[in-house]
Each structure stands twice: as C-alpha cells, then as structure tokens.
C-alpha cells in the first residue's frame, strides 16, 4: 500500500485524536516500545547548566555596574534586584528537588503518583525563566529533538498516572514543526505532523496530516485539509511550558491537564 491521500476530515474529530497520547487510559505492556533516554549522555547536564547560568549572571552584573554611572543608580538597583529574583527562581531548592523526583520517575516509573503530582505542582508555581526553553526543546537544527511522554495528570493535578504506551513527540525549533506519535512496536504506529508557533512559553500547533503504518506495509497518509498558512494561535491546541532542561520537560495542555516528558532518541517507524 503506497502513500495515499484521503479527503479532509472533521477538525473536531482530529483535534481529539491528535491528543490521543495524553488521554489514553488503556495500559498495555505489549505496545510499549523500548526507547533509549539521554540520561547516560546528559547525566551532568543540569549541574553544568546551573554553573554556567550563575557564572553568566555574575558577568552580567559586573558589566552592569561598570556601564552605569552614579546618575543611574536607581536603574542599576532595579536591574540587579530583577537578576537576583531570577537567580533565586533558578536555584530554588524546592524546584531542584522536584526536578530530581521527576527524573527518578522517568528512569524507574516507580515514584509514587502523589510525589510526582506534588513535584509538578511545585514546578508549575515556580515561574522558571522560559528564555531557553524553545532551543532546549527543539534543538538548533532540523529534524529537532524527540521526547517520550512519561506521566499525565488531570486538570488541577487532582490525579495522574504513568502513561502506558510509547508516545513520542518531536519538536523542530528551526523548522517550527511538530510531530506526535504513538508507537505499537512491530504492529505499527500512528503519527500526526504539523507546524507550531512559540510565544514566551506557549507553543500553539496545527496538525496538517496523519500517517498510519501497519506492520511492514507502506504508511497511509491522510491530509487534514489545513491548506491555509495561518499562524497557529491559542484558539488551536497548545502547550504552556513550565520547565525544560536537557533531560525532562513539563507542560500543561489546553484542556488543563499537565504532563512531563523525558528526552529520548528518535524512533524510525
């Protein structure tokens, strides 16, 4: 079966289907495809980034003091206070501990649900600076980076669970492309591909096509009828990102549910 195009289908149907990876409740070990996480490669990434961030912060503060004369003391004080607040957020021990909880949960899937929910709550409230989020999430060149869904929580973090299937999202910051896939091992996969926009910490997206692959057969491609070139906005599905480093990412979807991902190697179906 070669690559084929089908007639455009209902947008509401595919809006729901496109978020299947965040809403499935059917656990199945059979369909969980092993993916190699980046923990072994990036074991020291977090501490290295913190050290670099703090060093850069001190340099910025020194440059600010050198550049401003006595007439600009009010501006200097305001700038330094802001920088101190950012540093306090970045090095908040509670945030650091919550990040460790999530990373352990990603490695073992044995951290109690209540502890994961608590860690997500701390991170959501921390107001971590999002200036580096997109580059970390999507890399500097196509095809971008891939992230495996580990845990999903309901609105307001009332409950949650480890995601039972292999769901992987690819973000390409250079090409502004997104791919959302659910993989069923040798049985096949279902993937959605489209474009996204980024503003501050919000990633809005529109899926343009679906690919369905069954076994060794060639994939079937379905066009979703997104022919216009309009920019995705918050009227479309979106994620609000609360935390992203080289190993994990935390975000809330348009429906209010929160999830976290671990960076992984790309799957080739």
From TrEMBL:
<protein>
    <recommendedName>
        <fullName>PAP fibrillin</fullName>
    </recommendedName>
</protein>
């Amino acid at each position: 079966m070669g690559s084929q195009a089908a007639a455009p289908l209902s947008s509401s149907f595919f809006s729901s289907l496109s978020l299947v990876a965040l809403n499935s409740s059917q656990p199945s070990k059979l369909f969980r495809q092993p993916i190699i996480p980046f923990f072994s490669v990036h074991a020291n990434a977090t501490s290295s980034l913190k050290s670099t961030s703090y060093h850069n912060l001190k340099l910025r503060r020194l440059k600010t003091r050198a550049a401003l004369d006595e007439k600009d003391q009010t501006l200097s004080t305001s700038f330094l206070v802001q920088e101190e607040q950012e540093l306090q957020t970045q090095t908040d021990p509670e945030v650091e501990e919550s990040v460790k909880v999530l990373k352990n949960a990603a490695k073992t899937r044995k951290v109690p649900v209540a502890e994961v929910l608590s860690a997500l709550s701390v991170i959501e409230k921390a107001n971590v600076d999002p200036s580096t989020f997109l580059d970390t999430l999507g890399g500097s060149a196509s095809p971008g980076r891939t992230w495996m869904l580990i845990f999903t929580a309901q609105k307001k973090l009332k409950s949650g669970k480890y995601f039972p299937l292999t769901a992987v999202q690819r973000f390409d910051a250079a090409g502004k492309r997104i791919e959302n896939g659910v993989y069923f091992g040798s049985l096949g996969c279902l993937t959605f591909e489209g474009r996204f926009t980024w503003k501050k910490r919000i990633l809005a997206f529109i899926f343009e096509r679906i690919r369905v692959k069954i076994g060794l057969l060639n994939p079937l491609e379905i066009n979703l009828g997104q022919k216009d070139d309009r920019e995705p906005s918050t009227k479309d599905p979106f994620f609000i990102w609360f935390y992203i480093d080289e190993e994990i990412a935390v975000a809330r979807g348009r429906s209010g549910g929160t999830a976290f991902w671990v960076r992984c190697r790309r799957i080739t179906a």
